[in-house]
């Protein structure tokens, strides 16, 4: 019979408990385990900190996030908005953070800005379930204020894991926050859009956020800028570019 070495047994128990704690289960004896070292039969020795295994599916990641209380946005949110769409999507859209409608429904981009995004996706000859849509922040900032740096730092690792699971061929970063977070840049969106950038080997096309288009409806040029960015995306995906008629 294979006998487990006490140290690896301890590591397995600790990893298992950490996983449970990550999924929101309280009252686990993790602290006691860490204090005693959990292995009184051996002298203390420096160890690499153990990370819980990274989830391999979106469902697994969602479970790991659990009833997230990692930042203050948990106090004011109604629903955590994880993301929606195809687990193997070739194209992922990343927005900023849920708004009021998204917070209420627990789904990304379902409000007015969401309708603009849906029309854009359909103008590209695609349907929402064929792509994946998510945000940098999974919870709504009160009164739709801008995300705070510490909230981005706390939440963006989940975005990274979503992208690592989906492995899309192209990412569209919608607006300043998604672009600056993914590309670790401080450049304004107007300077970044219109050309591909690189996120761990995946091309990223920054473009204007649908809310920006809504706030500047009179400026049709912004809309055509977004469309020309999407034409580049379609070309990169080797998808046909639907004829888009200019409205007067
Ligand atoms: N704006 C965003 O950035 N994300 C949403 O989900 C909705 C509006």
Question: Number of folding domains?
Answer: 2
**Percent helix among the residues?**
40-55%
Average per-residue pLDDT, rounded, comes to 89
User: What is the count of helical runs?
Assistant: 11
CATH architecture of the largest domain: 3-Layer(aba) Sandwich
Q: Main sheet?
A: 6 strands, mixed
Q: What would the CATH topology of the largest domain be? A: Uracil-DNA Glycosylase, subunit E
Structure, explained:
The chain is an alpha/beta fold and 248 residues long. Helices cover 44% and strands 10% of the residues. The chain folds into two domains: 6-36, no CATH class; 58-236, Uracil-DNA glycosylase-like domain (Uracil-DNA Glycosylase, subunit E, 3-Layer(aba) Sandwich). It has eleven helices and six strands. A six-stranded mixed β-sheet has the order 1-3-2-4-6-5. Bound molecules: uracil. Uracil binds at residues 95-99, 102, 108-109, 111, 113-114, 135, 211.
Q: What's the SSE blueprint?
A:
Elements: H1 6-22, H2 30-36, H3 58-65, H4 73-76, E1 84-85, E2 91-95, H5 100-105, H6 112-123, E3 132-135, H7 149-166, E4 170-174, H8 175-183, H9 189-192, E5 197-199, E6 202-207, H10 210-215, H11 220-236
Parallel strand pairs: 2-3, 2-4, 4-6
Antiparallel strand pairs: 1-3, 5-6
Bound molecules: uracil.
């Amino acid at each position: 019979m294979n006998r487990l070495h006490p140290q690896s047994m301890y590591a397995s128990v600790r990893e298992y408990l950490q996983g449970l704690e990550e999924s929101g289960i309280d009252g686990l004896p993790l602290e006691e385990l860490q204090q005693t070292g959990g292995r009184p039969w051996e002298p203390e020795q420096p160890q690499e900190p153990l990370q819980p295994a990274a989830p391999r599916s979106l469902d697994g990641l969602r479970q790991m996030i659990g009833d997230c209380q990692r930042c203050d946005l948990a106090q004011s949110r109604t629903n955590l908005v994880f993301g929606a769409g195809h687990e193997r999507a070739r194209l992922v859209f990343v927005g900023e953070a849920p708004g009021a409608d998204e917070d209420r429904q627990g789904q990304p981009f379902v409000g007015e800005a969401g309708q603009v995004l849906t029309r854009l996706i359909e103008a590209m000859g695609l349907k929402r379930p064929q792509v994946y849509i998510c945000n940098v922040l999974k919870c709504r900032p009160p009164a739709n204020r801008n995300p705070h740096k510490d909230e981005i730092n706390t939440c963006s690792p989940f975005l990274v894991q979503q992208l690592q699971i989906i492995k899309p061929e192209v990412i569209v970063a919608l607006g300043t926050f998604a672009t600056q977070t993914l590309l670790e840049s401080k450049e304004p969106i107007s300077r970044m859009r219109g050309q591909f950038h690189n996120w761990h080997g995946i091309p990223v096309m920054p473009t204007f956020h649908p809310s920006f288009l809504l706030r500047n409806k009179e400026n049709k040029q912004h809309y055509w800028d977004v469309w020309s960015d999407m034409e580049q995306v379609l070309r990169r995906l080797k998808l046909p570019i639907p004829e888009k008629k200019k409205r007067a």
